[in-house]
């Protein structure tokens, strides 16, 4: 059985788990967190109380429910994305904020949003080589997960809707 999920952007933290039913046991599930529009501020301190609270609650959710991965669905860096691979926003808006023990070893699969496209998205893609958590291989990619002990494959399509539909500049 194959399940497909297409992912664009979200403006809220979303926790999800694909469960195959109580009779199949808890190990046959896929748990993940999804977050979008978390990009902090373009000026120091590069973060907001809402972002810090979201990060804290993601840590609680990952600790309580478990998380196999996190989907980051765009607007990772407000308001104009990042400048280059050495931009301090990677550290100060992402690494330092989403730092709960329960999040430290969880991979993030990343998409760009319209605010990211106002900056240097290729630097966000390149950051995948610098961070053990940040995975952004391309503007479009797919994730495939096979649930252990089953014939179930979950495919998540990561689609850059800004490139598909255009930048709405809605800010």
Tell me what portion of residues adopts beta-strand conformation: 15-25%
- Principal-axis shape: globular
| CATH fold-type name | Purple Acid Phosphatase, chain A, domain 2
Q: For the report, how would you describe the main beta sheet?
A: 5 strands, mixed
Assigned CATH architecture? 4-Layer Sandwich
Summed up, the helix count is: 5
Strand order, main sheet: write it out: 2-3-4-5-6
Total individual domains = 1
Radius of gyration: 16 Å
The named CATH superfamily: Metallo-dependent phosphatases
Q: Helix content range of the residues, please? A: 10-25%
Signal peptide: 1-21
Keywords: Hydrolase, Signal
Pfam family, one: Metallophos
GO biological process, one term: bone resorption
Structural description of this entry:
The protein has one domain (8-140): Metallo-dependent phosphatases (Purple Acid Phosphatase, chain A, domain 2), CATH 3.60.21.10. Helix content is 23%, strand content 25%. It has helices at residues 49-65, 89-95, 114-117, 121-126, 161-165; strands at 2-7, 14-19, 29-35, 69-73, 108-111, 134-135, 141-146, 153-158. Strands 2-3-4-5-6 form a 5-stranded mixed beta sheet, with helices on one face. The protein is globular and about 45 Å long. The relative contact order is 0.21.
What would a concise description of this structure say?
The chain is α/β, with parallel strands linked by helices and 171 residues long.
